[in-house]
């Protein structure tokens, strides 16, 4: 069967499922006991597996299958979610994503996933510090403390040890004793683990890692460990840590391992009769058969039970078709305006009525067409929680990401382009902005840094802000670095405002980080970010308080292709002013204009606001409001600030189609584009934001 | 052996200029032009060409030739180069000729008041007629204009 026709559907849906898997996993991580989330994850994984298998992507299917096995245990409360399970599942998601990516790029979606599959299998087989379900764990914990210190290894752990010995690694059995007078045993234990994990792999511990972390152990703990280092080296390393009393290390060979295996198996059987041991063994016995049964057999029942959040009904449309629709509609709109003009000239009642009806229908149509192209920024934001989580882990920082306004809608074209710049800015905020835990504590801040990601509408712009409460930008550091790199001279630097200095961060080949990390700081990036945002017709501003934090604010045009505007006349010229930035229109007399410090001001609702002469700014040849006794004004607003634009006459309100001025003309201050009026003439669209400083 | 190309011939003053036909989209009569403030002096404004807004350059202004009143024969030649669409106002445009690229010779320093770098070459088409081929990429080179304008300021 030819699968190509299903390929794009497969890709779209896989991406959706991967995205929702990522989201739900994050949700689960903060809320590990919520089994309803596990259900959703399980279903997504299951669907993904089914699709991948149908399409013949074996690796994809087998990896999802293993994930499903793990999830199945979790949702049946056979397995409690733990950090390392999360990590493994996240790694699996990454692998799945790269496979899907490969398929998108025309690849076969093949990847070596054996490592991840092995660790997933390990989880299923019970290579878990404490595999018991929540209800039995406390009892077992108590029991464990009284148990003798030999560790029970399961089949899988044996095979790992066995294999590593075969491959020339050393398998060690360590018993670490902590000094009796030690106050923070858990911390010492943690340091031991930290040390061990740097040069090898811990296979199994007794008591479990969780219990050790919670100081539920006496003086010693023991573990199986695989490393390349010699026994003496290890001993020395561990003893170098303070408050460690002694370490006993036994190197295992295959023979002793086999012996141990037999012993532990027989002891298990024997223990089955003992009441205390019973719970533990049944716990792990139930685990294995459960994992191998097909999860589908149980799925339907569960689905009905917790059918949360049915997705909205949608169809997928090629974005190009939407663009064509949009263009056709703009043509129609120009004709509509023209028709309205003709009808008002013809003064034919029936014609006017028909045209009016058509206008109403077309404005409804316009709303729909515009909405079709709008996409919530969430589609970009949704990948950031995961990114922050990973970044924070790799940089060893603690970071809280707070997203607000993710429902804010932006034009599809902007959404498509804005992702990469935002990724850069966020990486930058996490890497350079937020300090390490130690630094934060030293500065008297809470150890968890906060990154605020905000999106909101203002006028006909959308703002996306990335604000962190990190170390802030120090003017001197930026200047020093810029001067050293020859971006500015010392004299130039001294004359710059803070904002101008911050903008230097966007200069090509600029990086102030003292240590270059692999996250950011390669000196490429911020300049690319600015270039991209400028290309979208937006710009970035930086507000920073040294020691308190930094705010990168990205202003983006709401590149709506159709906007409501007020058409005005200045002499023979017509201009369009977007309604979104107009507060009010009015008429003022010449004697109402005051001059303050050489600036003309008028009073507007009790406030003095500047009167801006459009005719002077644009050197309009045949109009000058200063000769008029009375002049019409349009009060515009940018944020808190307002100003009045003097014009000659209002023409009226109209829906206009935004057109670009073409690639040849450079950006003109105060002009955001052009539109075609009903009579076929071009009128420039003003950008009032530029007039208010 | 050069190839045969078709060339649109237009006039500025007494000189005849040529642009390869595949770079020309259409030739239009004068239409009302919307002035665009705060831009290059030789940019006359923008027009609506079947729903597309196109900037219009007065070619005389671009080459710093004396400006003249627009007449009945004034034409706008819409060209597309490097993904830019631009209209040139010329005195007249009323001929298409075949030209062999071998006939195009390197231009002298200045022809008809236009610097050599804006020119692709000069072709002799008759005993009397000299056709000046424009180098459109240079004519529309913005970097150079920006420098030029800042010197003027």
TrEMBL record, chain A:
Boundaries of every HPt domain copy: 1-103
Name of the protein this chain belongs to: Chemotaxis protein CheA
Pfam family, one: P2
PANTHER family according to UniProt: CHEMOTAXIS PROTEIN CHEA, SENSOR HISTIDINE KINASE CHEA
SMART domains attached to this UniProt entry: CheW, H-kinase_dim, HATPase_c, HPT
Ranges for domain CheW-like: 562-693
Top-level lineage group: Bacteria
Catalytically driven reaction(s): ATP + protein L-histidine = ADP + protein N-phospho-L-histidine
GO annotation, cellular component aspect: cytoplasm
GO BP annotations, alphabetical order: chemotaxis
GO molecular function, one term: ATP binding
Annotated keywords: ATP-binding, Chemotaxis, Kinase, Nucleotide-binding, Phosphoprotein, Transferase, Two-component regulatory system
EC numbers, comma separated: 2.7.13.3
CDD domains assigned to the protein according to its UniProt record, in alphabetical order: CheA_reg, HATPase_CheA-like, HPT
Modification Phosphohistidine occurs at: 46
Occurrences of domain Histidine kinase (ranges): 310-560
Organism listed in the record: Paenibacillus antarcticus
From TrEMBL, chain B:
InterPro entries, sorted: CheW, CheW-like_dom_sf, CheW-lke_dom
GO CC term, one of those recorded: cytosol
PROSITE patterns for this protein: CHEW
Matches recorded under Pfam families: CheW
Domain CheW-like: 4-145
One BP annotation, GO: signal transduction
Superkingdom assignment: Bacteria
CDD domains named among the record's database cross-references: CheW
Protein name: Chemotaxis protein CheW
UniProt source species: Paenibacillus antarcticus
């Amino acid at each position: 069967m030819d699968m190509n026709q299903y390929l794009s559907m497969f890709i779209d849906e896989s991406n959706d499922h991967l995205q929702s898997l990522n989201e739900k996993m994050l949700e689960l991580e903060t809320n590990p006991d919520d089994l309803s989330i596990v259900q959703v994850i399980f279903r997504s994984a299951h669907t993904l597996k089914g699709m991948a298998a149908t399409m013949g992507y074996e690796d994809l299917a087998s990896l999802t299958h293993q994930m499903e096995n793990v999830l199945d245990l979790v949702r049946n409360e056979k397995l409690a979610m733990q950090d390392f399970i999360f990590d493994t599942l996240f790694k699996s998601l990454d692998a799945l994503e790269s496979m899907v990516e490969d398929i998108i790029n025309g690849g076969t979606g093949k990847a070596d996933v054996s490592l991840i599959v092995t660790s997933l299998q390990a989880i299923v087989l019970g290579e878990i510090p404490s595999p018991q379900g929540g209800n039995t764990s406390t009892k077992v914990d108590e029991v464990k403390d009284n148990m003798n210190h030999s560790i029970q290894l399961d089949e899988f752990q044996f095979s790992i040890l066995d294999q590593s010995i075969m491959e020339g690694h050393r398998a060690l059995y360590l018993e670490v004793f902590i000094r009796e007078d030690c106050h923070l045993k858990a911390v010492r234990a943690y340091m031991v683990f930290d040390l061990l994990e740097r040069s090898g792999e811990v296979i199994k511990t007794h008591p479990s890692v969780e219990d050790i972390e919670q100081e539920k152990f006496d003086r010693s703990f023991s573990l199986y460990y695989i490393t390349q280092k010699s026994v003496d080296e290890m001993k020395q390393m561990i003893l170098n840590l303070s408050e460690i009393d002694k370490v006993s290390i036994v190197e295992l060979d295959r023979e002793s391992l086999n012996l141990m295996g037999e012993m532990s198996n027989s002891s298990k059987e024997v223990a089955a009769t003992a009441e205390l041991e019973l719970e533990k063994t049944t716990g792990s016995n139930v685990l294995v058969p459960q994992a191998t049964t097909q999860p589908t057999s149980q799925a339907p029942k569960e689905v009905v039970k917790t059918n949360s959040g049915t997705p909205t009904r949608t169809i997928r449309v090629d974005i190009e078709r939407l663009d064509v629709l949009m263009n056709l509609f703009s043509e129609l709109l120009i004709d509509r305006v023209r028709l309205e003009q003709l009808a008002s000239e013809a003064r034919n009642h029936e014609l006017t009525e028909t045209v009016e009806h058509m206008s109403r229908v077309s404005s409804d149509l316009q709303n729909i067409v515009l909405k079709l192209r709008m996409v919530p920024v969430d589609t970009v934001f949704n990948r950031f929680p995961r990114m922050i989580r990973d970044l924070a882990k790799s940089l060893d920082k603690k970071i809280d990401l707070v997203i607000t306004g993710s429902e804010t809608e932006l034009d599809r074209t902007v959404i498509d382009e804005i992702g990469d710049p935002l990724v850069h800015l966020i990486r930058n905020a996490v890497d350079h902005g937020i300090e390490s835990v130690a630094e934060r504590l030293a500065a008297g801040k809470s150890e968890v840094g906060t990154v605020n990601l905000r999106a909101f509408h203002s006028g006909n712009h959308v703002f996306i802000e990335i604000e962190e409460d990190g170390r802030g930008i120090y003017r001197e550091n930026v200047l020093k670095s810029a001067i050293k790199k020859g971006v500015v001279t010392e004299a130039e630097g001294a004359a710059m405002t803070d904002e101008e200095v911050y903008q230097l961060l966007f200069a090509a080949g600029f990086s102030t980080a003292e240590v270059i990390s692999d996250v950011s700081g390669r000196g490429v990036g911020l300049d690319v970010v600015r270039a991209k945002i400028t290309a979208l017709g937006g710009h970035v501003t930086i507000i920073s308080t040294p020691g308190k934090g930094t705010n990168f604010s990205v202003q983006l045009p709401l590149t709506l292709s159709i906007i409501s505007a007020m058409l005005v006349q200045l002499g023979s010229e017509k201009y369009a002013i977007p309604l979104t930035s107009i507060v009010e229109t009015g008429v003022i007399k010449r004697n109402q204009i005051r001059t303050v410090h050489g600036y003309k001001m008028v009073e507007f609702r009790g406030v003095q606001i500047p009167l801006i002469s459009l005719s002077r700014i644009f050197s309009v040849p045949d109009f000058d409001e200063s000769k008029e006794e009375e002049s019409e004004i349009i009060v515009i607003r940018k944020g808190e600030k307002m100003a009045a634009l003097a014009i000659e006459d209002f023409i009226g309100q109209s829906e206009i189609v935004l057109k670009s001025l073409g690639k040849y003309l450079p950006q003109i201050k105060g002009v955001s584009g052009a539109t075609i009026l009903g009579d076929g003439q071009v009128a420039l669209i003003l950008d009032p934001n530029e007039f208010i400083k | 052996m050069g190839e045969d190309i078709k060339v649109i011939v237009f006039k500025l003053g007494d000189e005849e200029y040529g642009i390869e036909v595949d770079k020309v989209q259409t030739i239009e009569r004068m239409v009302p032009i919307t002035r665009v403030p705060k831009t290059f002096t030789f940019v006359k404004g923008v027009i609506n060409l079947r729903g597309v807004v196109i900037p219009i350059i007065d070619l005389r202004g671009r080459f710093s030739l004396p400006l003249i009143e627009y007449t009945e024969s004034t034409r706008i030649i819409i060209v597309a180069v490097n993904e830019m669409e631009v209209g040139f106002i010329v005195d007249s445009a009323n001929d298409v000729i075949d030209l062999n690229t071998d006939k195009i010779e390197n231009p002298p320093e200045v022809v008809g008041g236009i610097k050599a770098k804006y020119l692709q070459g000069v072709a002799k088409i008759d005993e009397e007629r000299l056709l000046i081929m424009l180098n459109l990429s240079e004519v529309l080179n913005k970097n150079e204009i920006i420098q030029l304008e800042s010197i003027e300021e």
